[in-house]
Specification:
This protein is mainly β. It has a domain of about 100 residues. About 10% of the residues lie in helices and about 35% in strands.
């Protein structure tokens, strides 16, 4: 047994000589200041909904804009009941959209007027009034327009006092 220990002794000594001594740990790194964060967004108040009230208007708007956009809209509404509607708009020379009351049925009177296409396509016309204008807008009505122009087909705005085209500026 003594012989085995003697044989292991040089091996242990050689291993001890090969030991790597590590430098002492460096002091903790100084805290890096955080970069400035963007200020928290200011809580915005949600716009208040337009209070529902009866819309009574005999509206006619024929207008041609400098960019070639043109509209010809006629609408009669009495106590939020749409009595007549014919609306055609042109997007320059690229195409047009057309809406007629005979192709729709009224499904809502408040808080805004809503008309659904009777063909089941999902096309919806909406009418609402704020203090400055009465708006006639459309949603999901691509099939009522020339292909490729629907994204440029804007709502028509009427002056609630005169029934003519509202000023957009």
């Amino acid at each position: 047994m003594k012989k085995k220990r003697l044989l292991l002794w040089p091996l242990a000594a050689a291993l001890a000589a090969c030991t790597v001594t590590l430098p002492p740990p460096s002091p903790p790194a100084a805290r890096v200041p955080e970069t400035k964060k963007a200020p928290a967004p200011v809580a915005r108040e949600r716009p208040t909904p337009i209070p529902p009230h009866d819309i009574d208007i005999a509206a006619d708007c024929q207008r041609t804009e400098e960019d070639g956009f043109r509209e010809d809209a006629h609408m009669r509404v009495a106590s939020n009941d749409v009595r007549s509607l014919s609306w055609k708009l042109w997007v320059g020379r690229h195409g047009s959209c057309h809406f007629d009351l005979t192709e729709f049925r009224q499904v809502r009177k408040t808080p805004h007027i809503e008309l659904q296409a009777i063909d089941g396509s999902g096309c919806t016309l909406m009418v609402w009034q704020d203090p400055r204008r009465v708006t006639l807008a459309h949603a999901h009505c691509e099939q009522h327009c020339t292909p490729g122009i629907y994204e440029q087909a804007w709502p028509v705005l009427f002056d609630p006092r005169s029934g003519t085209c509202a000023q957009i500026r």
